[in-house]
Amino acid sequence: MNREQINAFVDEYTGGDPDEEVLLLNGLDEAFIGLTSNNIRAVYSINKIIECLSKDMSEEEAWEYFGYNIECAYVGEKTPIYIKTA
User: Fold this and answer.
1) What is the pLDDT of residues 34-84, one digit of tens each?
2) What is the residue range of 48's domain?
3) Is the dihedral of CA 7, 9, 12, 18 positive or negative?
4) Rounded Cα gap, residues 63 and 2, in angstroms
5) Which of 16, 23, 61, 63 is most buried, taking the most CB atoms under 10 A from its CB?
6) Reported pTM
């Protein structure tokens, strides 16, 4: 998905409610996989995040960057959720 598609998906799911803020990651739209059903939060695939980051760095560096700069960043109750898939 691109950002335009993600925004349309979020608007559809939230009914366009401007008070229903959803925090999205910059530059990682390919890794977006959906929204949670309660306390609506963005959900991202860790596998896809690493794949995206590995375009600009080694896989080891991507894991380090993810762990330090993305996964550990708490930006409030709307902080995105990251899942590792099989």
Assistant:
1) 999 988 999 999 999 999 999 999 999 999 999 999 999 999 999 999 999
2) 3-83
3) negative
4) 23
5) 63
6) 0.93
